[in-house]
Amino acid sequence: MTLWEGPDAGKPEKRERPGGAVVAFVVVLLLVLVAGGYAAAHAVAGDKVPLGTKVSGVDVGGMTRDEAVAELEEAFADRASEPIRVEVKGGRSADVSPGEIGLAIDYGASVDAAGAGDSWSPARQWDYFTGGDDVEAVVEVDEGQLSAKLAELSAGLGVPPQDGRVVFGADGVDVVDPVPGEAVDPEAAREAITEAFLGEEDTVELAVTDAEPDIDEDDVQEALDSFANPAMSAAVTLVFGDSRVRLQPKQYAKALSMVPEGGELVPKIDERTVTRLVKGATTAGKPVDATVKLVDGKPKVIPAKPGVEFESDDVVAVFTALLAARGRERTGEVKATVREADFTTKDARDLGIKRKVSEFTTYYPHADYRNVNIGRAAELIDGTILKPGETFSLNDTVGERTAENGFTIGYTIQDGILKLDYGGGVSQMATTTFNAMFFAGLEDVEHKPHSFYIDRYPEGREATVAWPDLDLKFRNDTDYGVLIHATVTPSTYSTQGVVTVQMYSTKVWDIESRTSERYNYRAPATRHLTTPDCEAFTGYSGFDVDVTRVFREHGEDEIHHTEEFHTSYTPADTVVCGPAPDED
């Protein structure tokens, strides 16, 4: 039987040559040797820092990671407590403690960044033996603390910028221009402080940059255009029922301000000031009638004050809304409960009290009781207003002369002789007032001259009073109101007292006084008194005299009419204290 065999059938088998085994052995041996050397190199390098390495100047090369960390901690341990002096040009300086800005070295991260770390990487082995270098320590900073400190340094070492401002005053609106300043450059400061912390220097110079104000010129101009100038352009009128409270810019300027907010100036209204201004022009209870008073020597209408009850918020809201308006639109109605005055501001203006129409002055010798009594009477009379048709009564105006009413005891004339009583000297005020009335051209209703003549008064033109029956009265028979102004300059031991009464109105009459010669003289008698209140007195003769009041319409030469005053003075009897001679 024949078997099929392939082409190589019958050929002898090949054998491996001895040299191949040797090569393989050598290769294996070399690999073993290389592996052993690499392992030895790894054993040397381990997690050590590459040879020759320095971290911020501290040599840590060849140290294990833990050794390098310890070395850095020892080298920089004191730095955390050592302040760093920072300064800017111009000599301004301050100290910064690393702890207050959270400045510290991350020692582990610094060593790792220097190349420490266990690795079988050939590059790692190569770096250990050949890669030593100088590296900076890894520094940590608390950004919040650093920002706060840099802001503090800017305030202390820099020049703070000045915001522009708008200022309200009685004379209008003033502008304070913005001024740029200087601030510490935060990025440069952080870098410089960090370098100083890591280095040997304990002083570092900080760079400053321009610091622009939050409120610049454009912001100021916008504030002027949008609020300040319109607000101060004209008066604001608040309407309470039929009454109006007109507030001028110079009055409410103190209630206005503009404050910085979000990089711009915004209006601010002082509500208390606005409310106080309105309350000053109104009353919370009964209304107050208008009147006329002398202000700096001239009559001035004092407006009526309505009785008004309102909510401050309503007043401030209307007032604020009107500040931006112009012209007639600067009037607004305020919700309120209003009680109007009986005598309005218009009524007061219609009185026509515009100028001084008469004045008269008398003098008196020194006496303390006269200073008290005449001064008190002047105080009560001063400011009296007579409306057209009204009658003035001195007794009604001054009241009873009592200690409770402010008067003291002094000499009075009773039954032709001097006696002590409350109110002595008030007749001086009566005489002065009578003469002011006389030259104002008012209607004489009631007056009585002294029973005997007193030489400090004009003869035939004087008056005495006594409570309650003897009075001085006159009527305002003009179409205008009359304001009476009374003043007293007290006497001293070396000077006479001065009494002046002025009347203000609209001038109607030019008055001339004509006084006759004295006539019908009468000799005085002599009285002997034994009463305890006797006051000795040297008498003088009585006489008659006539006074003519000549009326001319104001500015005219022609006499309009005249008025006669006849006065008959009794003799002033001589008074002797003691019994008559024939009674001895």
TrEMBL record:
The keyword Transmembrane applies. InterPro entries: Glycopeptide_resist_protein, Vancomycin_resist_VanW, YoaR-like_PG-bd. The chain crosses the membrane at residues 21-41. It comes from the Bacteria. Residues 97-202 form the YoaR-like putative peptidoglycan binding domain. Pfam families: PG_binding_4 (PF12229), VanW (PF04294). Coiled coil: none annotated. Keywords: Membrane, Transmembrane, Transmembrane helix. PANTHER family: EXPORTED PROTEIN (PTHR35788:SF1), EXPORTED PROTEIN-RELATED (PTHR35788). This is YoaR-like putative peptidoglycan binding domain-containing protein. It comes from Nocardioides antri. The lineage of its organism: Bacteria, Bacillati, Actinomycetota, Actinomycetes, Propionibacteriales.
